[in-house]
Amino acid sequence: MGEEFINITFSDSPCWYELSWQEKEPAIILRIHEDFIKSIDFNLQDSMQIKSLKEDLKLPDFSDNFDEDFGFDKVFKNIGKKEGFTSFLIGIPQVKKLTGKKCPSCDGSGKNEEIDLECHYCNGTGKEEILDWSLIYKISATFSAISPLLSFYRKGSSASFPQLLTVYTITKKDMHGGSLSGDISNPLKEWLFHHFKDGEEITEIIEAMRIVYGTMLGFNDYNNSWLRFVVRQDGRFCSDCPGDACGLYPDTWDFEGGRGYRFCCHNVDNPMQQLTLITSLAAFHDMARKGMKRNLTKV
């Protein structure tokens, strides 16, 4: 029989990749262990996943050289190697942009004259706004191209600290087109359980989400009560972003001692929502890794 996929909800495994959050010049950092990169024994460009994403989303070529920038149009930027990991920077793009024209809905007044409120379409600016999805779809699709490999790994790495979470994403132009799911390890679940109360919101994670969502909308002072990262019973969590009940939730509320759990999503329809929720996981991972004193944690 061949090697089985690693399932971090049942057993600890040395880390083969991790997500991190960069607040200054907002970005997500993907760090991949050299052992994982060496284990890839086929040409990613030939995979049906990448061919399908490229065709369906009308994307440029995919680069699979992890020694350089990689992904669709090379949107994951190689920023070097350290302690056995190669790091890639994924900058947060501005999606909502001004065209320089008058808003066609309010004719440049910035107001909805019928109800005497600011125009919903231009947020009172009187200027036309458009959503430029081109770059963020390249980012989302690159996550979706690599996440099956990262989520279903058969070998451990030589890292001295454990894999805390995994993320699997889907990208398509349709309902639920930004879906994501993944696994939370038992060490991460236990850390959350012992450091936060049931119902407590983690403001540092919410702030990271606010920065990312605001960056994509072009608002430095963006603030929205729909953004949330709250701890629930037994080390579970819920993460919400703007949308129709859009967020991440545990796939079960039944407590099982000594193991982690899966999380899933609801109504994540586009890459903006997806990237905001990935940011919440990256910031969550940073807090936990630091709290566990990474350099001292052994598997």
What does this 3D model show about the protein?
This protein is an alpha+beta fold. It has 2 domains: 240 residues, no CATH class; 36 residues, no CATH class. Helices cover 27% and strands 26% of the residues. It has 6 helices and 16 strands. The strands form 5 sheets. It has a 6-stranded antiparallel beta sheet. Helix 2 runs antiparallel to helix 3, helix 3 packs across helix 6 and helix 5 runs antiparallel to helix 6.
TL;DR?
This protein is an alpha+beta fold and 299 residues long. The chain is built from 6 helices and 16 strands.
Q: What is the overall shape?
A: globular
Assess the beta-strand content as a share of residues.
Answer: 25-35%
> Care to count the β-strands?
16
Poorly predicted runs are 294-299
Order of helices and strands: EEHHEEEEEEEEHEEHHEEEEH
Oligomer: single chain
Q: Rg from C-alpha positions?
A: 20 Å
* Residues in helices, as a percent range: 25-40%
Sequence of strands across the biggest β-sheet: 11-12-16-15-14-13
First-to-last CA distance: 25 Å
Topology at a glance:
Blueprint: E1 17-22, E2 27-33, H1 34-39, H2 48-57, E3 62-63, E4 71-72, E5 77-82, E6 85-91, E7 96-102, E8 111-112, E9 117-118, E10 127-131, H3 134-151, E11 165-169, E12 180-184, H4 186-195, H5 203-217, E13 228-232, E14 236-241, E15 246-250, E16 261-266, H6 271-291
Antiparallel strand pairs: 1-2, 2-6, 3-4, 5-6, 7-10, 8-9, 11-12, 12-16, 13-14, 14-15, 15-16
Helix pairs in contact: 2-3, 3-6, 5-6
